[in-house]
Amino acid sequence: MANLIQSLEESQQGYQQHNPNIAMINHTQPSPSSHSWSLSLALLLLPVTTVSVGIISYQYVELRDAWLQQNQGTVEVVEVSAPLIKLSYPNIVDLKDSQIEVTAVDRLEEPVRSPQQSEQHDFKADAKAPVVTTSNEDDLLEGLDLSGLSPDIAQRLHAVMQSEEVQSSINKSQTSQDQTVELISTAPQWYGKLPALNFQTHLYSSDHDKRWVKVNNSEYQQGDWLAEGVKLLKIEPQACLIEFDNQYIRIPALYDWQG
Asked: Could you give the 3-state DSSP secondary structure of residue 194?
């Protein structure tokens, strides 16, 4: 029996050696049962594998974020206060008035002369000085030729004439102030007499030549005639002084007198 089995095996081996392709086909052909089992196993493991991959990915993201928070540098805002600089207190001095006071000179001081020099100058003045008649008008120097006099005599004469003019203007101003009436307080007596005067613009300046007013759509300066019988004597800071019917009247600035 044993010899029979051994003989079959030897014959089988010899057949396989002579026909190797048949032996390979027999070994490579899978059985239907093993193929279906592999497919079932793959279908069973697919959901498990998918869930495992999702869990691993989620854990990886969490671990990555935690690592970044621990190892990545953070921006820290630090407030630094500005340095305090202590400055010395400035020296403050009193402000000085920039206006220059001008003192009016009434008359020039006469130089000291000896009696002989005084007699000589008086003699020359009597010989060369023309006869000048006194007058109350303002143009006392008009028509007077001072070229023939010595400079000293001409200067003295000019100073005296100026002092007389200044004194005359002062007296006239004081007289006008004493006789001045206010238009507002005495308006009833001027109704129908004083012409209509509409003071539209009032400009006062320390320079007399730059003072002017606009009355009835026309510009006037001191000394001009505003209307028939109405003369503008003086422009004051807050009023105007006029002369009408031999009466000095003060009218407030920008006042509209209807007449």
From this structure: coil
